[in-house]
Specification:
By secondary structure, the chain is α/β, with parallel strands linked by helices. The protein has a single domain, classed as Rossmann fold (3-Layer(aba) Sandwich). The protein is built from five helices and seven strands; from the N terminus they run E-H-E-H-H-E-H-E-E-E-E-H. Helix 3 crosses helix 4. The longest helix has 24 residues. It is globular, with a radius of gyration of 15 Å. The mean pLDDT is about 90.
Length: about 160
């Protein structure tokens, strides 16, 4: 069964990695904004960005945060995490630093973007499941993410039902 998810990621650093995750084919993800589309949305200001994100999240069960080296602390990633949680969506983190970018480079592991959020005194970093395939080559990382992502999405949905 295809999962309807919203992908949250740092566009500048991880858009190539995000496209690899989308191509796994088991998820119906939010449409990708091209560079031109994203620049047009950004040029209209914060309210336009928030509205665009909110529309993209409609009908999605899960917010999958693709965690790269520069994901932590980014304004719009934080907004997507908060908006996803407050609108009742499951949250899942997937480390993508081991996937190659368009230049064929991997990256260093980024910090957990859920660490700055808490629910009733409990850190989201203690609630949200993280898929981290470890320090392996890009092809093996992709295969492990592809093999495990559907189960992690289901686990995230089950966890969200408890909160």
């Amino acid at each position: 069964m295809v999962k309807r998810v919203f992908f949250s990621f740092h566009y500048g650093n991880d858009n190539w990695r995000a496209s690899q995750i989308r191509n796994i084919g088991m998820m119906d993800g939010n449409p990708v904004a091209s560079d031109n589309d994203w620049e047009s949305i950004k040029s209209r200001g914060d309210a336009a960005i928030r509205n665009w994100i909110n529309r993209q999240m409609e009908g999605r069960s899960t917010v999958v945060v693709l965690i790269g080296s520069q994901t932590y602390g980014r304004k719009w990633i934080n907004y997507e995490i908060k908006q996803g949680w407050t609108s009742g969506k499951a949250l899942l983190g997937v480390y993508v630093h081991q996937l190659k970018n368009r230049l064929g480079h991997t990256d260093v592991q980024g910090n957990n973007p859920f660490a700055d959020f808490n629910i009733s005194g409990v850190g989201l970093d203690r609630i949200v499941p993280l898929l981290n395939v470890g320090n392996i080559d890009s092809k093996t990382a992709y295969n492990r993410i592809a093999a495990n992502l559907p189960n992690f999405i289901e686990a995230a949905i089950d966890i969200r039902r408890k909160y």
